[in-house]
Amino acid sequence: NAGVTQTPKFQVLKTGQSMTLQCAQDMNHEYMSWYRQDPGMGLRLIHYSVGAGITDQGEVPNGYNVSRSTTEDFPLRLLSAAPSQTSVYFCASRPDRGPNYGYTFGSGTRLTVV
Amino acid sequence: GQQVMQIPQYQHVQEGEDFTTYCNSSTTLSNIQWYKQRPGGHPVFLIQLVKSGEVKKQKRLTFQFGEAKKNSSLHITATQTTDVGTYFCAGRQGGSEKLVFGKGTKLTVNP
Q1: CA–CA–CA angle A15, A20, A26 (5° rounding)
Q2: For chain B, first and last CA: distance in Å?
Q3: Which of A20, A106, B86, B92 is the most exposed place for a label (fewest CB within 10 A)?
Q4: CA of B52, closest CA in chain A: separation in Å?
Q5: Residue A103 has what DSSP assignment?
Q6: What are phi and psi of A85, to 5 degrees?
Q7: Is the torsion defined by CA of B27, A41, B31, B108 positive or negative?
Q8: What separation in angstroms does the CA of A63 have from each of A22, A40, A84, B107?
Q9: Per-residue pLDDT of chain B (111 residues; tens, 9 = 90+)
Q10: Coil, helix or strand for B101?
Q11: With an 8 Å Cβ cutoff, is A56 touching chain B?
């Protein structure tokens, strides 16, 4: 059981470039979310999904796209990177039933946009 | 929109002292969760509170959910150096899956 796997761990992009942050979980969790973490700002929700084929916007969705074609994968796409998107990105998943409804987080992707 | 405020932002204690962080929401929450993030790490789920006035304990950690379900607290008794990290509360409204985090309280412990 690998849990939630995020790739890459580190990435440097130039302004205007696009890229996809990968997230995969092997726990058959229905719910998945993407957060960004900036110093002093806590964790802010970008997009989330309640199951394959279903996604919705969080608090800060602008500049990001997501899709959920399978239960396991929930990639985050940056359409045209901006310096304001420099951040640590966390993907998380949780089960839809059982006593533990908390999110399991991946180890994060540290993104720098120059 | 839903906002979750957390205080204090920073707390420095001597080992053995108690620690409390408080979480307040602008709206009534259906549930609240607490997470711990060690320096350089990722958030780790600690607990979820659902019922009004609920109190749960995990060894030296005590979690409370307010009667109005708009506030919560985490109290650590006799802190240890292993308690170092940032503690986040996160709340949900109604049946929404949106989990909104507070900005966290960073705890440092002087041995």
Answers
A1: 155
A2: 41
A3: A20
A4: 18
A5: P
A6: -95, 5
A7: negative
A8: 16, 21, 10, 33
A9: 678 999 999 999 999 999 999 999 989 999 999 999 999 999 999 999 999 999 999 999 999 999 999 999 999 999 999 999 999 999 988 778 889 999 999 999 999
A10: strand
A11: yes
